[in-house]
């Protein structure tokens, strides 16, 4: 992206005299537990130092349990109370395993995954979290006023100064979804997700009275003509190659998740129970939707954003970008062209 000159000193920003032509209707969103307080504070400090002290976007922190007052105090105090932090609780109906899920069947599947050493294979709370991030966070009352969000997790790192506003940039360039890292999913966690996604197209097709022919052209909101199928599949959609955007980092337009096509898709997936009978992640769910429902021009890879979530780092590949951002990451060790990265699949459809 073109950048705004960021030769503004922090003193100027602290005087409250900082002004930009435009701000986006945007917020950070952090889902965390009370026990994540230290990691949350560290992530917030880094994004403040590298970006947000010049931009002043607010934070919404969500938790499935009541926030402990000491945690609220701790987060607010570390940032001198000058920022806008709002602490919210997720309604349990948006979080817990629905009672129409067959718990015997779900348990059997979890036990098997534990035997097979699948990461988080035995965890119900991890599944709740994935389902919440797939279908609920953007409907939380505290997020409803906003269009754009930047998802942040405890204990992540931002390695470069960000010298432009990615929300405004995305709005101006008509983007809907942005990522920094893409990789393969563990097949064991989503054995039927691709077939279920195909089942969704069929059900939509039928509900529109389609018999064949031109569904894509008639309903581009359900499957974009210029989609990113070539990134998701190496055989024109027959099978899924497991590539997805790593969703612990996301900057995106919530109007996309709130749209009828995405909500229909989520409801369909949810009705099949795969968040609990398997271990569907929000990353592949978001990625399949963004890649198929959006034209590929609406998905942005931000090379400029140096980002680390253990164990992987994206470091800007362009030397000029890396210098300008005063990055603290090693360009040679960026995940982009690691054997486990899907960046080359993304590049090939560009
Ligand atoms: P990973 O990145 O896939 O290894 O999963 P994480 O453990 O980092 O969880 C993803 C995000 O969800 C992080 O922001 C966590 O703080 C949050 N999270 C995970 N499980 C829970 C939970 O049970 N309750 C709450 N409130 N947050 C959770
Ligand atoms: Mn994480």
UniProtKB/TrEMBL annotation:
In terms of Gene3D superfamilies, this protein maps to:
Spore Coat Polysaccharide Biosynthesis Protein SpsA, Chain A
One family name in Pfam for this protein: Glyco_transf_15
Which GO biological process categories is it annotated with? Answer: cell wall mannoprotein biosynthetic process; protein N-linked glycosylation
* Keyword terms: Transferase
Picking any one GO molecular function of the record gives:
alpha-1,2-mannosyltransferase activity
Does the UniProt entry include the keyword Transferase? yes
Q: Name one GO cellular component term.
A: membrane
Q: Which sites are catalytic?
A: 250
Q: What domain of life does the native source organism fall in?
A: Eukaryota
So what family is this one in? Belongs to the glycosyltransferase 15 family.
Q: What is this protein called?
A: Glycosyltransferase family 15 protein
């Amino acid at each position: 992206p073109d950048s705004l000159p960021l030769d503004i000193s922090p003193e100027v920003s602290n005087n409250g005299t900082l002004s930009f032509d435009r701000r986006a209707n945007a917020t950070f969103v952090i889902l965390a537990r009370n026990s994540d307080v230290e990691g949350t504070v560290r992530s917030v400090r880094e994004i403040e130092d590298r970006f947000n002290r010049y931009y002043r976007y607010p934070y919404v922190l969500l938790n499935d349990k009541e926030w402990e007052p000491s945690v609220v105090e701790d987060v607010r105090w570390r940032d001198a109370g000058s920022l806008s932090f709002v602490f919210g609780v997720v309604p349990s109906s948006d979080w817990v395993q629905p009672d129409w899920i067959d718990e015997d069947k779900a348990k059997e599947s979890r036990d098997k995954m534990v035997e097979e050493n699948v990461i988080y294979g035995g965890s119900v709370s991890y599944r709740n979290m994935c389902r919440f991030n797939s279908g609920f966070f953007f409907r939380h009352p505290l997020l409803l006023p906003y269009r754009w969000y930047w998802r942040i997790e405890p204990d992540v790192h931002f390695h470069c100064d960000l010298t432009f506003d990615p929300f405004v940039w995305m709005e101006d360039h008509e983007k809907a979804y942005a990522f920094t890292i893409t990789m393969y999913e563990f097949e064991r966690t989503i054995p039927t997700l691709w077939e279920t996604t195909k089942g969704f197209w069929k059900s939509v097709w039928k509900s529109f009275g389609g018999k064949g022919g031109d569904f894509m052209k008639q309903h581009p909101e359900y499957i974009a003509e210029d989609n990113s199928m070539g990134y998701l599949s190496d055989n024109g959609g027959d099978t899924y190659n497991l590539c997805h955007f790593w969703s612990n980092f996301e900057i995106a337009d919530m109007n996309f998740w709130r749209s009828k096509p995405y909500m229909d898709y989520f409801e369909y997936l949810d009705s099949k129970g795969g968040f609990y009978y398997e271990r569907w992640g929000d990353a592949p769910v978001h990625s399949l939707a963004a890649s198929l429902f959006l034209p590929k021009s609406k998905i942005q890879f931000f090379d400029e954003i140096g980002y680390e979530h253990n164990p992987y780092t994206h470091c800007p590949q362009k030397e000029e970008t890396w210098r300008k951002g005063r990055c603290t990451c090693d360009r040679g060790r960026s995940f982009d062209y690691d054997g486990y990265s899907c960046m080359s699949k993304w590049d090939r459809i560009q």
